[in-house]
Structures are given as structure tokens and as C-alpha cells.
Amino acid sequence: MNRYSEQAENSIFFQQLDICCQKVAEQIGEKPISDWTNSDYVRLSGLLSRKTSIHLSESTLKRIFGKSKTSTRYYPQKATRDALAKFIGYRDWYEFEFKNPIIDVKTGLVQKAPAKTPETHKQESNKKMLYFIAFIVLVTFIAIVLLRKPDTGTDLFAQNVKLKCINPEGLTPHSAIFKLDAAGPLPDSSSNFSVDFGDGKIKRVNLSDSLFNHYYEIPGRYYPVLLYKKRPIDTGYVYLQSKTWSAITSVMQDTTRVYPVLVKDLGLRTPITVSAREVYSAGVDTNRTFFVHFSHVRPTNINGDNFELTVHVASSENRAGVRCSQADLFIYGEKDKHVFGIIKPECVAWAHYQFSEDVKDGAKYDLRALGHDLSTGADLKLRIENKQVKLYINSKEAFKTQYNKSIGKIMGVKLTIAGIGYFENLHISDLKTKETF
Q1: Can you give the pLDDT at residue 79?
Q2: How far apart are CA 387 and CA 404, in angstroms?
Q3: How many whole angstroms separate alpha carbon 375 and alpha carbon 318?
Q4: What is the value of pTM for the model shown?
Q5: Residues 113 and 50 sit within 8 Å (Cβ to Cβ)
Q6: Rounded Cα–Cα distance for residues 175 and 168 (Å)
Q7: CATH code at position 193
Q8: What is the CA radius of gyration of the chain?
Q9: The CATH number of the domain where 314 resides is what?
Q10: Is the pLDDT score of 106 beyond 70?
Q11: Is 193 exposed, middle or buried (0-12, 13-18, 19+ CB in 10 A)?
């Protein structure tokens, strides 16, 4: 803790911190800080992160605002104070201190912070030396990069290599045949190519191979990407349609195969579901964690950037092999896809979404908005209007975002449920033409 914060609870440091906290509170609402609940600190954490790109947890904010009572008050480090100052319109904490001086009520004079000790000066000198060394290292690195002779011939060649799928459309399963088309002679680095097939599998390929195959097992629209030195340089598509709703199961951590559930007239069931016996008959150990992929993939004229989707979904109840009871919804477009997963609140580390180029996952981002227990069922509504995304759960807005790149027309949907769940009343309609799926 800062040595000055140990000297006096009501020192000039805490007086200025209190002023800053009050200004933050005034900016986000009229409720006094004394009436704040946990949700107010959660909301402030999100607002701070979006505005300053600095994440302060609700527990840290509670310590700063005095909500968490301790024997000595917490005085945050400068980076944290800078974030609070930036949130209310200042460049940093120093500017906030300068423009919000503490006036002694007896003398009318501006109070000044205690002078820096020799130890503090030494610490600052050490920091300046570290910054100088880091600057020298950075300049040296930039010079090396700029002076290095680029491998222009090979990279320019790679830009002219295209990924081609000879038979991109079919039913499931499907063996897609690929080839790399190249202009000019083959370079020595032709082995630096690989293909991400869009279904979680990646394969290194060589320009000397005239053809190579990939086996797709689940209906959908895939977007295989050609990579050169792990950088994307070209893409294509593989489109596997289904005549009606189909159900295929997969087992967690088993990437070797999937298990089709052979049932008749699945699309006529109300609700649409499969039983544990049917999954077991497909070859799945139902004591393990498994997923059921319900797919209906066919082309439409519905605009993937202007539509509304509604569905009632119930995920698996608590059972062996299922802890988080998640449900993932995929909307395939001509050029890209929309995907979002709803999962139990305690499991949001596994939450994720993709709306065209906007991709986030719970391991790196705060996706608590996608945390909801679907084991008893819930009504979902996804509305995308002019690339503005809003998700409603039981008629309440839960999440929103936006993206820039169009996905084109909707080419099918897939609903993946962990364990045995069901869905019903799935409708998709174009906001302008009113065409439905």
C-alpha cells in the first residue's frame, strides 16, 4: 500500500479520491454511493472497461469506493486512478489533481501532498531508467525489422495461390476434394501452406500434392481457409444441406467420429428432441458428456443482416456427464455465420459468440450476459437489424453488439444442445420481405 495512505484515513490523498469517486457516481446515475448494490459495481466495471480499456473488478471497485470495510482504507495504484480520471473526462490522475485542488477551510490555501521522500525519488529514477532501456530495445527491434531484406518473391507468390474445392456442395456425410491453384513455378517454401477446414480440423498441405480430401460429417455451411505461414490468404465454402431436421451426436474430447441418430420424421416431432435411448442406440455412452446437433440446412432469401429469430429451448437437466447445460445456435450465411451459446451462469468461462467478424469467448472477455440456466426452458429472440444485434431471454434484453461485414443470405440453422434437451417453435423471418424459414 502507498506509504501516505497509511498515515491518515482522511489525508489529502483520500479527499481527492473521494471527489473522484463522487464524480464517477454522478456520471453513471443519481443514486448515492451509499445505496449502491453489487449490480452497480458490476455495471461500473463494464462501463470502465469499455471506455478506458482497463478492467477493474467489482471487488476492487468496492475497496476503492469504501464498500468493503477494512482496518485501513485501500488507496489504488496510479494506473487505477488514471482509469477513474479518464472515465470522467481527464487525461490522467495528475490533471484531475490539478483541476480539483483541496482547499484548507481555515486558511483558504490549497493543500499540497506531502513531499516525496528520497526513497520515492530513487524508485522514480529506477523507473525512468527502465523506460529508457525499453525504449532503446524497441528502437533497435524496429531498425532490425526495417533493414531486414523481405522475402518478397515467396510472399508475393503465396498471394497468388488459391484454394479450390472441386465438389463444394452435397449432403452429409461428404468427402470434399480440394486443390491449390498456383500461378508460376513452385517455391521451395510451398510446404508452409495449411488449410483450416472450418470444422475444427487443420491440415498441412503441399503444392506438390495435386488433390487432397476432407471428410465432413455434420450438415452446415463451412468456410475453409488457406493459410500461409499461419496467415489467411484465401477462403472458400463447403455447403452440406439436409432435406429436413437431422440429429447427429458427438462426444466431448472425441474428434475421431460422430454418431448419427437414425429417427424418422424428426421435424414432425413436437417438441423436436431425441431420447436417451435413441442416442445410446447410435453408439454413444450417455454417461459421458455428449452433444446433440439438430440441423436444418437449406438456402433461403432471408437477409442474414436483417432478420428476427425466435425459439423456445430447454437444455439438459443435471445428469451424469452434463454440468453446464449449454445450448449453441448457429445461423449460416453465404459468406460467414452468426453463433452464440447460452450456458449456466457459473460456466460463463465457456460462453462464446460470433457475429460475422465480431468474435469473443468467455476465457478472455466478460460474457456474463450469456449466462442463463436453460434446463427448465426459456424463450430466446435474436433480432439483427442493419448489423445491430440484440438477444432477448424471456422477453428481457440480455445482450447486444454490432458487426460490419455482411454474411449474405441465410443458408441454414443448427442448434447444439449438451445432453438431452429439446426446442420448439423455431421461426426466422426477414424484417423487410417477411419471408420465413
Answers
A1: 87
A2: 7
A3: 8
A4: 0.62
A5: no
A6: 9
A7: 2.60.40.1930
A8: 28
A9: 2.60.120.200
A10: no
A11: buried
Domain hosting 291: range is 246-430
In three-state secondary structure terms, 63 is helix
How many Cβ atoms sit within 10 Å of the Cβ of residue 413? 24
Residue 250 neighbours by CB under 8 Å, 6+ apart:
218, 258, 259, 290, 291, 293
Burial of 154 (0-12, 13-18, 19+ CB in 10 A): middle
Using DSSP, state whether 409 is helix, strand or coil: strand
Q: Cα–chain-centroid distance for residue 343?
A: 14
Instruction: Kindly state whether residue 317 falls inside one of the protein's structural domains.
Output: yes
199 and 276 Cβ atoms separated by less than 8 Å: no
Q: Which three cell numbers stand for residue 185?
A: 513455378
Is the domain of 42 the same as that of 180?
Answer: no
C-alpha cell at 173: 456425410
How many folded domains does the chain comprise? 3
The percent helix, strand, coil of the chain (3-state, each to 5) is 30, 30, 40
Q: Please tell me whether residues 256 and 175 are part of one structural domain.
A: no
Query: Which residues on neighbouring strands pair with residue 340, listed in sequence order?
Result: 329, 353
- Distance (Å, whole) CA 356 – CA 338: 6
Residue with cell 444442445: 417
Query: How is residue 314 written as a grid cell?
Result: 430447454
CA dist 20 and 80 (Å) reads 12
pLDDT tens per residue across span 44-87: 888 888 888 888 888 889 989 888 877 777 888 888 999 999 98
User: CA dist 164 to 204, 221, 363, Å?
Assistant: 15, 16, 34
Query: Which stretch, 34-38, 50-54, 395-399, has highest mean pLDDT?
Result: 395-399
- Beta-strand ranges (E) seen in 168-255 are 169-170, 174-181, 193-196, 202-205, 212-216, 220-222, 225-228, 231-235, 238-240, 246-251
Sequence-separated (6 or more) residues with CB below 8 Å from residue 295: 218, 219, 220, 242, 245, 246, 247, 248, 412, 413, 414, 415
How many Å apart are CA 232 and CA 246, to the nearest integer? 32
CA 200 to chain centre: 17
C-alpha cell at 288: 459421458
Residue 322 clears pLDDT 90, i.e. is over it: no
End-to-end Cα spacing for the chain? 60
* Contact status, residue 425 vs residue 312, Cβ threshold 8 Å: yes
Q: In whole angstroms, give the CA distance from residue 310 to residue 217.
A: 27
Q: Are 40 and 65 in contact (CB under 8 A)?
A: no
